């Protein structure tokens, strides 16, 4: 018995795969397929020019390559699909995978895959692989974008393509019929889709609150008292805006959760879809939270540099010099002020620490190392405690400022009041939800529904 037949007995023989087009994507895919044990056949306009192709691959003309395989990857841009038309008959009953992407969202009226299936009606067209980059295939760095979205009319053909994806280390996801191709083709073109809503909210809030502070802190005091404070634009006002926005965003992370729980309570069931806006909101909570954390970080840094600011040092020296001249020292330190100051620093530091913990545990690699219950515990219980501490920090600070300055005519600096509104609503609703009688009601609703579902199943 020679070595070859021995190999043949043990190695599962894979079917040949044809790739039309020897560009970046075609070559990278070919290399991966060869590594996974597939015989790879390239179809090219000039088969002689094959220096760059992965070792072990064969190159033919388009027609010759097509004849040698049942499954064909088309690694050519849509604008060049015309060359397929004369070859139409060679595609009879074969699986044709469209991997193409466009340059713009909704660039053409019909999806590339739909266009291809009109062009080559005899082929069974499957859309897929367009979200994987040639670079990722070649470098083997598939962690971040290992998902392959597959769609097509023929179930068997889709399975074939999904098997190939799996065997080269990708994770295929069935997206349904070819109608989904439009959406699949738009995926790689979307710019941070989950971040859009959080970004708009953050930008809007930041600008509004900044302008508001400029109005109150600069313009108002200039007009009323004639003091010019424009230097405050760079540090003092931003350090007012960051914590305010951060706290509002943190409130917005937990608001949809309590709203969803109340909605379930009101509807008496948890087996009904949430309205779309609530769904979208729930889906971007992690992003909202991470932006809030970034703003909290900025607040910490901006606070730490206060002692090295020129304006602060000037005030301090002046203050000491004035007292020396008068030959007095200030009356005894106010113990209550010291208490308040320490209180908001202590709560702030603890809140920030928990906030960091929340941020770290939301990263996939760490989230994956926890079970569902642990994740829920951290994100929900600790999250609400973080919200409570942060709101407490802001409230004590606002109270302190209120006692120390008379600058703000309407009592507390109004933007602090603003930042407390959403967290207070969330915390109040959460408190209601965890009171024993409401909690029992939620459990009853759940059990009732589970029983109903079960009896429904029994009848079937
Ligand atoms: N590059 C990437 O990271 C990704 C690319 N894709 C998709 O893969 C497809 C190929 O992309 P890519 O490899 O980057 O592009 P390239 O420009 O590198 O390669 C395209 C290949 O198509 C063939 N070709 C070009 N013009 C014609 C024509 N008029 N008629 C017939 N064949 C032609 C050529 O092969 P030959 O000379 O052998 O005939 C050429 O090498 C595109 O649809 C793209 O959207 C999808 C995901 C990622
Ligand atoms: Cu603070």
What do you see in this structure?
By secondary structure, this protein is α/β, with parallel strands linked by helices. The chain folds into 2 domains: 17-189, NAD(P)-binding Rossmann-like Domain (Rossmann fold, 3-Layer(aba) Sandwich); 195-321 and 335-447, Up-down Bundle (Four Helix Bundle (Hemerythrin (Met), subunit A)), CATH 1.20.120. It is built from 17 helices and 8 strands. The protein has helices at 3-10, 24-35, 62-67, 112-119, 134-139, 155-167, 181-186, 196-225, 238-267, 276-283, 285-304, 310-326, 335-361, 364-367, 372-404, 414-434, 436-459, and strands spanning 17-20, 40-43, 58-60, 71-74, 95-98, 124-127, 147-152, 171-174. An 8-stranded mixed sheet has the order 3-2-1-4-5-6-7-8, sandwiched between helices. Helix 9 runs antiparallel to helix 11. The two termini are 59 Å apart. The structure holds NADPH dihydro-nicotinamide-adenine-dinucleotide phosphate and copper (II) ion. The site of copper (II) ion has 5 residues, from helix 15.
């Amino acid at each position: 018995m020679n070595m070859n037949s021995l190999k043949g007995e043990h190695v599962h023989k894979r079917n040949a795969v044809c790739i039309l087009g020897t560009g970046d994507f075609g070559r990278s895919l070919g290399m991966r397929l060869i590594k996974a044990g597939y015989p790879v056949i390239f179809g090219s306009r000039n088969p002689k020019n094959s220096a760059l192709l992965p070792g072990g691959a064969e190159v033919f003309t388009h027609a010759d390559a097509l004849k040698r395989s049942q499954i064909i990857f088309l690694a050519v841009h849509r604008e060049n699909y015309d060359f397929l038309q004369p070859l139409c008959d060679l595609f009879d009953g074969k699986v044709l995978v469209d991997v193409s992407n466009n340059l713009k969202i909704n660039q053409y009226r019909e999806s590339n895959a739909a266009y291809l299936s009109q062009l080559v009606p005899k082929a069974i067209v499957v859309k897929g692989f367009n979200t994987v980059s040639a670079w990722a295939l070649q470098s083997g760095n598939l962690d971040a974008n290992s998902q392959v979205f597959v769609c097509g009319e023929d179930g068997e053909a889709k399975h074939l393509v999904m098997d190939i994806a799996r065997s080269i280390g990708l994770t295929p996801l069935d997206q349904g019929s070819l109608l989904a191709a439009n959406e699949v083709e738009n995926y790689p073109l979307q710019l941070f889709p989950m971040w859009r809503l959080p970004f708009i909210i953050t930008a809007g809030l930041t600008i509004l609150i900044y302008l508001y502070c400029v109005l109150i802190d600069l313009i108002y005091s200039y007009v009323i008292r004639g003091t010019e404070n424009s230097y405050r634009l760079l540090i003092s006002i931003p350090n007012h805006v960051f914590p305010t926005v951060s706290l509002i965003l943190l409130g917005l992370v937990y608001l949809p959760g309590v709203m969803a729980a109340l909605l379930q309570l009101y509807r008496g069931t948890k087996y009904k879809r949430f309205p779309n806006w609530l769904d979208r909101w729930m889906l971007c909570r992690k992003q909202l939270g991470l932006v809030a954390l970034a703003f909290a970080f900025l607040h910490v840094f901006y606070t730490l540099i206060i002692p090295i600011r020129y304006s602060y040092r000037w005030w301090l020296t002046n203050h000491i010099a004035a007292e020396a001249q008068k030959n007095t020292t200030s009356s005894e330190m106010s113990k209550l002020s010291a208490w308040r100051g320490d209180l908001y620093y202590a709560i702030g530091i603890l809140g920030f620490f928990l906030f960091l913990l929340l941020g770290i545990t939301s990263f996939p690699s760490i989230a994956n190392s926890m079970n569902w219950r642990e994740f829920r515990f951290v994100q929900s219980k600790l999250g609400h405690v973080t919200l409570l501490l942060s709101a407490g920090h802001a409230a004590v600070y606002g109270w302190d400022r209120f006692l120390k300055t008379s600058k703000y005519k309407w009592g507390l600096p109004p933007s602090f009041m603003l930042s407390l509104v959403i967290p207070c609503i969330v915390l109040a609703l959460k408190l209601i939800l965890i009171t024993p009688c409401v909690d029992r009601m939620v459990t009853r609703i759940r059990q009732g529904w589970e029983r109903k579902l079960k009896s429904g199943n029994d009848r079937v």
